[in-house]
């Protein structure tokens, strides 16, 4: 952990010479819903507002907007920045239920980590849109690529570098806007689509490539899907190969998982091979298996059916205790091996920041 803290200190020092200091967002996982949440201070007076993190979300939307907010008029610079709309409305999407609508664009004071944005843009949602969000959450905080997403507004307001670092945890993680915290990362290009997708050529289990006959394609990095989801055709091949590699009898599955084993078994390594054989995302132990009881553990991957647009959505459980650096300036995503392999975790790292 000391190496990460030293690198972070040097990065903060160098950034501070020409930019505002990076901002730390504390992220907490709700163990019942598996949603990752954070808190901003919004309005006058500033009200603590709990929001669900959505990496691919294109804006901040919330229910019960503060009375101090100001709605923006059609034709204003802010409306033009938010996107084409005859009535200055922006799309709103609940990533948990899939509900979508449009909300009026507004602005107000928002504070985070001691930094204040005087005219932060967000939209006000109808009451029903918060259905499915963790208890007491007022809306969704989007980190996507639109001009009104949280990260974009931070870049414009404070002259941050166009990057942010995510470190999710089963308890307390964090996001740092404006900096990376490690130079020990592997890098892969981000695909040029909305949200954050990486191109995966193949999947290996204990070094053996799955026989799927074609590249896996675009894989979404998701903070709102609890466990990695695979299209049925791929899931069937994947689970059969995993059971073979485990070389032990399966036990009755426990929903939502399809394959379970007795606990304490040796677990094979899963690898997602990116643009070359040298760039691999390794999914091991804690990130691949879910303990559902004292005697049973399940493969933490879920059958998404045949209606999926892509083949894989990489879920939050598989992201935990990895450092992810999204560099929108270079169009690259950096990722670490599991911090648990080094005796660290995102929660212990956050305690030291």
From TrEMBL:
Residues 1-20 form the signal peptide. GO terms for biological process: proteolysis. PROSITE patterns: PEPTIDASE_A1. One of its GO terms (molecular function) is aspartic-type endopeptidase activity. Residues 36-336 form the Peptidase A1 domain. Keywords: Hydrolase, Signal. The keyword Signal applies. Coiled coil: none annotated. InterPro entries: Aspartic_peptidase_A1, PEPTIDASE_A1, Peptidase_aspartic_dom_sf, TAXi_C, TAXi_N. This is Nepenthesin. It comes from Helianthus annuus.
């Amino acid at each position: 952990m000391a190496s990460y803290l030293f690198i972070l200190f040097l990065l903060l020092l160098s950034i501070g010479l020409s930019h505002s200091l990076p901002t730390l967002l504390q992220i907490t996982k709700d163990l019942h819903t598996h949603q990752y949440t954070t808190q901003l201070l919004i309005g006058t007076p500033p009200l603590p507002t709990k929001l669900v993190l959505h990496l691919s979300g294109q804006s901040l939307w919330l229910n019960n907007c503060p009375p101090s907010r100001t709605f923006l008029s059609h034709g204003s610079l802010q409306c033009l920045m938010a996107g084409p709309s005859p009535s200055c409305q922006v799309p709103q999407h609940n990533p948990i239920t899939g509900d979508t609508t449009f909300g009026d664009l507004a602005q107000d004071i928002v504070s985070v980590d001691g930094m204040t944005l005087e005219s932060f843009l967000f939209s006000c949602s109808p009451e029903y849109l918060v259905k499915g969000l963790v208890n007491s959450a007022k809306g969704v905080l989007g980190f996507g690529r639109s001009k009104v997403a949280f990260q974009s507004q931070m870049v414009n307001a404070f002259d941050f570098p166009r990057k942010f670092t995510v470190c999710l945890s089963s308890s307390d993680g964090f996001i740092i806007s404006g900096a990376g915290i490690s130079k020990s990362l592997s890098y892969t290009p981000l695909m040029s689509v909305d949200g954050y997708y990486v191109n995966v050529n193949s999947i290996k289990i204990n070094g053996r490539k799955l026989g799927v006959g074609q590249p896996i394609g675009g894989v979404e990095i998701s903070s709102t899907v609890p466990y990695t989801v695979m299209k049925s055709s791929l899931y069937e091949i994947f689970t059969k190969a995993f059971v073979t590699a485990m070389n032990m009898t399966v036990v009755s599955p426990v929903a939502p998982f399809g394959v379970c084993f007795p606990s304490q078994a040796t677990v094979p390594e899963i690898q997602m091979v990116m643009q070359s054989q040298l760039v691999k995302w390794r999914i091991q132990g804690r990130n691949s298996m879910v303990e559902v009881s004292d005697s049973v553990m399940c493969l933490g991957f879920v059958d998404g059916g045949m209606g999926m647009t892509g083949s894989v959505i990489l879920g939050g459980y598989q992201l935990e205790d990895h450092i992810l650096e999204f560099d929108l300036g270079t169009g690259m995503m950096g990722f670490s091996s599991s911090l648990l392999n080094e005796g660290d975790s995102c929660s212990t790292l956050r305690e030291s920041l």
